Amino acid sequence: MVLGSPDLPQRQVLDHGSTRAGRWLRARRLKFAAWIAVVEGLLVVLHVIPWFAALALAALAAGFYIWLGRELRSDVGRQTSWIAAASQVMVVLVPVLVALIGGLAILAVGILAVVALVVLFTDRS
Question: For every one of its 125 residues, what pLDDT tens digit does the chain have, with 9 covering 90 and above?
Fold first, then answer.
């Protein structure tokens, strides 16, 4: 094929060393990571998996990806290590978000209680 030939699809660039399976995983890796994080995050929130175990697994997965996963010869291995690291880091964020949202809900209830007290004490009837 010659650059610019009709046989070559327009705007398609292939990474050097990529494979068909690796490109397929790369196109869907965020979706896979998100679904893994949702399922595992629910297990953490429901206390099926301890949060510290999820935190340790996230540190291991992210460390593996940073030090070894990016340099793997296998394209599928690189994409799989990215999916594992991303999903585990997302799982660690789930309890943080639950605590943040719970804290905001408690704050909102407190503000509503103060407003209710002000309204009750300022009522002159």
Answer: 455 555 555 565 556 677 888 889 889 999 999 999 999 988 988 999 998 999 999 999 999 999 998 888 898 999 999 999 999 999 988 778 878 999 999 999 999 999 999 999 998 77
Residue found under tokens 């010869």: 73
Taking each helix axis from N to C end, the angle separating 75-122 and 20-45, rounded to the nearest 10 degrees, works out to 30
CA angle 32, 36, 40 (to 5 degrees): 175
Residue spans of the domains in the chain: they are 20-94
pLDDT confidence of residue 99: 84
Closest Cα partner for 81 from 97, 63, 98? Answer: 63
> Checking phi first, is residue 112 left (phi over 0); if not, alpha (psi -120 to 50) or beta?
alpha
Q: Amino acid identity of 116? A: A
Q: Are 78 and 72 in contact (CB under 8 A)?
A: yes
Contact indicator for 31, 89 with CB cutoff of 8 Å = no
Instruction: Report how far residue 93's alpha carbon sits from residue 62's, in angstroms, rounded to the nearest whole number.
Output: 14
